């Protein structure tokens, strides 16, 4: 790796306060302005000049910092002169290939391309599994300058000789870490072998590890390394809370209470298993919480319908597996992990759905005692800025049941206090005495209820 170039470009103090400082095309600038972007982010300030100057790039920064625009804007700038009104496919050869690990991310990037290329004559298309193969073949043969694809479906089209990469100039590996984690390394190598040798390669990843470094050394030529802060970091705009709870019922009731007593506009509730996604979605629906679910078992059409409905505020809680952890460019108020991820990278991506673009967000995660290793890793990269609470796993959930049943209003709700690994749910309600008189038998003159089942 060219350390001199890496140092000169990634550590530069030159800051462009406006996108016009990059010397971009007028139409591209108009599209950027229309989307409401005014000041380049740190990753954009470092990546755009490097890509415009023709260097291979390996870059990483916190999720939600504008990585997609950091490679799309300079690439579109470098091919915008190829815009033409011709209907001939020969006049619209593939110049850019963007490879992503998931359908959702591929769709999101393609949507961004359409916005950045508005009022130009550049064509783009996206291909992934779950969609009719022959229809994609027709689109490919009609010609496009920018192709976004997932590995498996792209390999299918390459084997069917549906794609011509002879004119390719740019190859982007986005979310490369996830691509390797999902077992696509063999596909990635096959795809690279099908591409021209002379091309500009750009590798973007939210996290960095040995596998990414190995991939970079094998396929990138003297790349510029752009590293902002630590590779594995969490945005300080995210308030993190971890509840240690062994009981599934306790987790579900706590989630229900939190959802009913916060004003979060949009929430993503992650679960590791499809079966838990089904169960949680039904649990919330039965409790009159507006929700829907997303996982790989859904057809592509249904997945798109669910994502669009979530974007358009048709429901408030998306219950999902990790298919929703990357590529959803939706402003989310809170991320809840019904169970913690097995890796730190996946945790970073999950909670990275909130606290984006400088807007504060919140993450709430449930763990077992045995998850001590990942909890310690989270604390380490968060510089101990994580609130850890212990929930009793005893059967007495009377406090949550009563709160939900009687809908206590005008209160400070519940304050969860960590007291020797127990949670005290203290009801601070101005109307408490009235409720107590009316429900004396049920409340038994309690002023507060301890999760362990003892009265104060």
Brief account:
The chain is of the alpha/beta class.
Describe the protein.
The protein is of the alpha/beta class and 456 residues long. 38% of the residues lie in helices and 19% in strands. The chain folds into 3 domains: 3-227, 3-Layer(aba) Sandwich (Rossmann fold); 238-391, P-loop containing nucleotide triphosphate hydrolases (Rossmann fold, 3-Layer(aba) Sandwich); 394-456, no CATH class. The protein has helices spanning 3-10, 26-34, 42-52, 67-79, 103-116, 133-142, 151-159, 176-181, 185-193, 210-219, 248-260, 274-286, 300-311, 344-351, 372-381, 398-406, 432-438, 440-443; strands at 57-60, 96-99, 124-127, 146-149, 170-174, 200-205, 224-227, 238-244, 267-270, 291-294, 317-320, 334-337, 361-367, 386-390, 411-419, 422-429, 449-450. Strands 3-4-2-5-6-1-7 form a 7-stranded parallel β-sheet, sandwiched between helices. A 7-stranded parallel β-sheet has the order 10-11-9-12-13-8-14, sandwiched between helices. α6 (133-142) links the parallel β3 and β4 (146-149). The model is unreliable at 1-13 and 394-456 (pLDDT under 50).
Please supply descriptive tags for the structure shown above.
Rossmann fold; ATP binding; globular; disordered C terminus; alpha/beta; 456 residues
Draw up the topology in text:
Elements: H1 3-10, H2 26-34, H3 42-52, E1 57-60, H4 67-79, E2 96-99, H5 103-116, E3 124-127, H6 133-142, E4 146-149, H7 151-159, E5 170-174, H8 176-181, H9 185-193, E6 200-205, H10 210-219, E7 224-227, E8 238-244, H11 248-260, E9 267-270, H12 274-286, E10 291-294, H13 300-311, E11 317-320, E12 334-337, H14 344-351, E13 361-367, H15 372-381, E14 386-390, H16 398-406, E15 411-419, E16 422-429, H17 432-438, H18 440-443, E17 449-450
Parallel strand pairs: 1-6, 1-7, 2-4, 2-5, 3-4, 5-6, 8-13, 8-14, 9-11, 9-12, 10-11, 12-13
Antiparallel strand pairs: 15-16, 16-17
């Amino acid at each position: 790796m060219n350390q001199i170039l890496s140092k000169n470009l990634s550590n530069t103090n030159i800051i462009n306060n406006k996108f016009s400082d990059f010397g971009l095309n007028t139409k591209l600038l108009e599209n950027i302005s229309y989307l409401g972007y005014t000041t380049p982010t740190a990753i954009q300030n470092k990546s755009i000049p490097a890509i415009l100057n023709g260097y291979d790039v390996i870059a990483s920064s916190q999720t939600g910092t504008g990585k997609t625009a950091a490679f799309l804007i300079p690439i579109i700038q470098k091919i915008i002169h190829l815009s033409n009104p011709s209907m001939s496919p020969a006049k619209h050869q593939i110049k850019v290939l963007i490879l992503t690990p998931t359908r959702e991310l591929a769709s999101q990037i393609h949507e961004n391309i359409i916005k950045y290329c508005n009022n130009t004559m550049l064509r783009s298309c996206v291909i992934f599994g779950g969609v009719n193969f022959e229809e994609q073949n027709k689109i490919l043969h009609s010609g496009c300058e920018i192709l976004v694809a997932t590995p498996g479906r792209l390999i299918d089209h390459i084997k069917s000789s549906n794609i011509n990469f002879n004119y390719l100039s740019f190859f982007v590996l986005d979310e490369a870490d996830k691509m390797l984690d999902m077992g696509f390394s063999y596909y990635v190598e096959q795809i690279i072998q099908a591409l021209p040798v002379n091309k500009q390669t750009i590798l973007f990843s939210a996290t960095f590890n040995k596998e990414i470094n190995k991939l970079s050394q094998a396929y990138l030529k003297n790349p510029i390394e752009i590293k902002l802060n630590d590779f594995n970091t969490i945005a300080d705009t995210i308030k993190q809370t971890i509840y240690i709870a062994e009981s599934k019922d306790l987790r579900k009731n706590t989630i229900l209470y939190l959802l009913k007593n916060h004003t979060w506009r949009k929430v993503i509730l992650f679960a590791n298993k499809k079966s838990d996604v089904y169960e949680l979605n039904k649990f919330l629906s039965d409790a009159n919480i507006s929700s829907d679910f997303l996982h790989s078992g859904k057809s592509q059409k249904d997945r798109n319908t669910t994502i669009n409905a979530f974007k358009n505020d048709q429901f408030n809680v998306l219950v999902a597996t990790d298919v929703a952890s990357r590529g959803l460019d939706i402003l989310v108020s809170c991320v809840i992990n019904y169970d913690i991820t097995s890796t730190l990278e996946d945790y970073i991506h999950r909670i990275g759905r909130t606290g984006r673009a400088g807007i504060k967000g919140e993450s709430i995660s449930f763990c077992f005692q045995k998850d001590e290793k990942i909890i310690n890793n989270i604390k380490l990269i968060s510089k101990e800025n994580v609130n850890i609470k212990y929930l009793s796993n005893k059967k007495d959930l009377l406090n949550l049941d009563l709160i939900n049943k009687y809908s206590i209003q005008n209160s400070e709700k519940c304050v969860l206090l960590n007291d020797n690994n127990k949670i005290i749910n203290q009801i601070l309600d101005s109307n408490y005495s009235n409720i107590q008189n009316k429900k004396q038998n049920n409340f038994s003159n309690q002023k507060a209820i301890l999760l362990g089942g003892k009265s104060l």
